[in-house]
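Data availability excerpt. The first of two example chains:
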Amino acid sequence: MRILVTGAAGFIGSHAVDVLRAAGHEVQGLDSLTPAVHNGRPDYLPSDFDLSVGDVRDPDAVRRAVAGADVVCHQAALVGLGVDLSDLSAYSDVNVTGTAVLLEAMGRAGVPRLVLASSMVVYGEGAYDCATHGRVRPAARSEDDLRAGRFEPRCPACGELLVTATIGEDAPLDPRNAYAASKLAQEHLAATWARMTGGSAVALRYHNVYGPRMPRDTPYSGVAAIFRSSLEAGRPPQVYEDGQQRRDFVHVHDVARANLAALRAGAPGTLRAFNVASGEPHTVGEMAAALAAAFGGPAPEVTGKYRLGDVRHVVASPAAAAADDGLGFRAHTPFPAGMAEFAKAPLRRPVSGGLAA
């Protein structure tokens, strides 16, 4: 297959390029190489890799890039929770408008398949069970509760503490920050494109991805890279809340393999979403401790600080992705081995500390 990877110079995109090329596909890249993120073409891209420099919002650049492609693997995005009101327009512009421009070009060029990098943030909070009321959806946590150190969501009906459950792809979607809203908008646009063109779209809802080439020293990066940046600076990782919030940390090599598996998944005229996760949840505190131990210290500090918009627990069910009628994908990298590798792996230094791609 001839595959276009957008965001090919980025963290996940570059690993997808490696895996797709190793599988024998003809791969081309599109990346803006924005100076806020990249200081020119990264040296980890193969020297013979065909990378076009262009913005996903530029119709002419995108039209040229999609010509002749069998599949587009859409990784280009601004990522992270967002730290300022100005991020609202930035996420909407790059992630939503950029995806719309890409889908229009794909439709006009007759490109029949899309693999979309989505995110677990579209769920908002994860799945919870109440002993009395069964499966419930807690409201966003109040700042009063967070300030008082009451971090666990409570049942909206009776106020009792909840038990965390795994979240499947059929869960209600409830994005709770600007980045999450932009990722859900991408899914909606992709579903519309599939219905209008008869194309096949697969949305990969990445959980907490970590690994080599993550951007460092930026508040927009993933928590694993933020902790790793602290360790390199000789500072203890600062763990927010009480450190007991649960996530699924999945290695970028496995995420790249999921993109390979998604090339032939899906059905014409539809979008199908899959969790891409390890299936082995850990607390943020456990991740910080494992990373610090592998790095050689200092030990993490639990601060009790919080960020509005953060969710408490998101624990994925990887069953749909693993099924034969899904992707046939299972993560291979064990948590201890992945953290040990990541503790020593090279990170990418953003040029200006701006939003990461």
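And the second chain:
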Amino acid sequence: MVDGLDGLININGDSVQTLEIIFLTTMIMLLPTAVVMMTSFTRYIISLSFLRNALGTQQTPPNIVLVGIALFLTLFTMTPVIDQINTEAYRPYSNEEITQEEFFNRAQVPLKNFMARNTESSSLRMYCNMAGETVPSTLSQAENLPLRVITPAFATSELKRAFEIGLYLYIPFLLIDIIVSTTLMSMGMIMLPPAMISTPFKLLLFITLNGWELMFSTLVRGFQ
């Protein structure tokens, strides 16, 4: 009888460990999606892509460099949120003080707070109406929304802001392209590609303004 009870306990223990492994594996698989949809990564990578296109430097910097910069800027921006999740959710869970369900519920709170503070009210209202949820009037009410509502609202707001940044980046470099093209046409040098002449001037302007530091500081300070 005792042997049978010990065997049942071992089976249950193995089942719990198996469930924890499955849970951790699932979290790791969903981590790239969470980084893209629930952090500042989307705004960073799109803005950097717009900058490269506006400069007209083709594949310089390469994609791997832009992704690396965006990841480290995301880590820099999300550090307070990560620290809060570590303190309030992960440590109690690793110490077996809370269950997996409590861990998931606690880990959501800092992420929801970050996303709610950086989500436009129009985007939040649209998804609340489509999901049949009450439109929040305060930040604390927005934090109580489910992730299926606040995550796409945050992603939509990030896409809008990233494209606005791209527009502002294009304007000064577009002016250089117009000036160079007009000058070449007035000189009768139609066969000379304008991009060949305008690209050095774009790089000169960007370097003179210390563009990388200005770009990074503006992007990071854009988050609340």
